[in-house]
Amino acid sequence: MCSLAIVLAGSAPFLESPDDPIPTGFVLVAPFVAVAFSGALVMLLVKRLRGGAVRAVLGTGAAALAIAGIVYTNSVSPRLLVIAYWLPALLSQAAAWVLELSHRAAMRGL
Fold it and tell me: Does some domain include residue 81?
């Protein structure tokens, strides 16, 4: 889920809208969040860093994408918003929830 969120958020600079010009901020926010998601994915692979830091980065990135998606609602086509902002936000939040549920299950098992 996190990898797909990285790919979708990182695709923002390459999306084109035939109708309207795309704002500069729209092209910059999602790739920066994709870089943060990449860092979270690397932290996830490091056994000692599987704790709250990964979930915090994923949740904060999802919130940033959701807020930016609301900001750009009137200036960018809905198709671009869904691809570059809403789907990555939902996927990263779902990944954070899965990590939280697995963390809770592991804590109950100990």
Answer: yes
